[in-house]
Amino acid sequence: MVPSQESPRLNEVSVVTRELKIELFEPGADPEMVDDLAADLRLELLELDVESVSPVVQGPPADGSKGIEVATLGALLVCIKDSVWLVEEVVGTVRSWLSRGSSSRRSLKITVEGRSLELSGATDEQQQQLVAEFVRSLGAPTRPDPA
User: Fold this and answer.
1) Distance between CA atoms of 24 and 101, rounded to whole angstroms?
2) Taking the model in full, what pTM does it have?
3) Which helix (H) or strand (E) holds 77?
4) What percent of the chain has pLDDT over 90?
5) At 133, phi and psi to the nearest 5?
6) β-bridge partners, 57
7) Number of domains in the chain
8) Does residue 1 lie within any of the structural domains?
9) What are the backbone dihedrals phi and psi of residue 62, each rounded to the nearest 5 degrees, phi first?
10) Of 22, 43, 62, 86, which is most buried by a Cβ count within 10 Å?
11) What is the CATH number of the domain that holds 131?
C-alpha cells in the first residue's frame, strides 16, 4: 500500500473575520469634534487584538473626482477574528470610552451581522444587560466570569 500524500491545503487554517460597524453620535457637535472623538475611540480599539480599525467609506469616489474616498463622519469599521469573546471586548472598550465622555447626549451604535446595539446614557447595569443579550444573539455564550 502506498501512503497517500496530504494536500498542503488541508493543513491551512481558514481565518474568518467579523466586521463591527461603530457609529458615533454627538448631537450639536461640529464635524471636526465628531472626527476627533472617532479618532480617540479608534486609538483605544487598536490596543485590542483586532485586525484593523478604519473609517467607514461611503462608497466609491464620485465621477470626476480625484479618486478620494469619502469617509462617513463618526463611523468606524472594526475587523476582528471571528470570536464572540473579542466582540465582547470591543463592546466593553466602547462602553468604557462612552462612560468617560463629557456629554450625556453622546451615543454609539454597534452593528454586527445585521444586529445592532445602541449605547447611550443608560446605567452601567442596563448597558451590561444589553451587551450580554447582544453577544448571546451572535450565537455563542459570553465569556465565563473568572472564579
Assistant:
1) 12
2) 0.70
3) strand 71-81
4) 28
5) -65, -40
6) 71
7) 1
8) no
9) -70, 150
10) 22
11) 3.30.70
Which pLDDT value is given to residue 55? 92
Long-range own/partner contacts, residues 25-32 (CB < 8 A, 24 or more apart)? 25/74, 25/106, 25/107, 25/108, 25/109, 26/74, 26/103, 26/105, 26/106, 27/105, 28/105, 29/103, 31/73
Does residue 42 sit within a domain? Answer: yes
C-alpha cell at 107: 451615543
| 73: confidence class by pLDDT, cuts 50, 70, 90 | confident
pLDDT at 47: 95
- Which domain range does residue 43 map to? 16-137
Is the per-residue pLDDT at 11 higher than 50? no
The identity of residue 81, as a single letter, is K
pLDDT computed for residue 67 by the predictor: 55
Task: Spell out the residues 6+ positions from residue 122 whose beta carbon is closer than 8 angstroms to its own.
Answer: 130
* Number of neighbours of residue 146 by Cβ within 10 angstroms: 4
Confidence band of 20 (pLDDT split at 50, 70, 90)? very high
Over residues 119-134, mean pLDDT: 70
